[in-house]
Amino acid sequence: MPPKSPTILTVKDNNKSVPARVGKQIEIHLKGNPTTGYTWTRLGFIGKETLSDDDMEVHVKFEATDSVPGMVGAGGLYKVTVIPNHKGHHTLQLIYTRHFDVKPADQKYTLHLNVE
């Protein structure tokens, strides 16, 4: 039997509580444009090499959307992969920010995981 696809969440799932399983991948798809200096990252992890902790593994990958040849500054989709490490209630907070800015994040994304 082929492995099941990960649960995929979007901005519509912001501030929701979702069921999850230990070791089962969840993917969050969020629009963004790194050419502006902005990126999605985990709150409290700005500038760190890892976004993971004891509660969950978190990885962010950007995929550019197709654009007109020669066009600069095209956006795309950030794919945030989350894998819960143990049972319990965990909260993931993501922010869309520039690492060099001191002002508050422009956008926030919060997800409450009820891990079985």
From TrEMBL:
The keyword Methyltransferase does not apply. Pfam families: Inhibitor_I42. It comes from the Eukaryota. InterPro entries: Chagasin-like_sf, Cys_protease_inhibitor_I42, Prot_inh_I42_chagasin. The keyword Aminoacyl-tRNA synthetase does not apply. Keywords: Protease inhibitor, Thiol protease inhibitor. One of its GO terms (molecular function) is cysteine-type endopeptidase inhibitor activity. Gene3D superfamilies: 2.60.40.2020. Residues 21-113 form the Proteinase inhibitor I42 chagasin domain. PANTHER family: AMOEBIASIN-1, INHIBITOR OF CYSTEINE PEPTIDASE. This is Proteinase inhibitor I42 chagasin domain-containing protein. It comes from Leishmania enriettii.
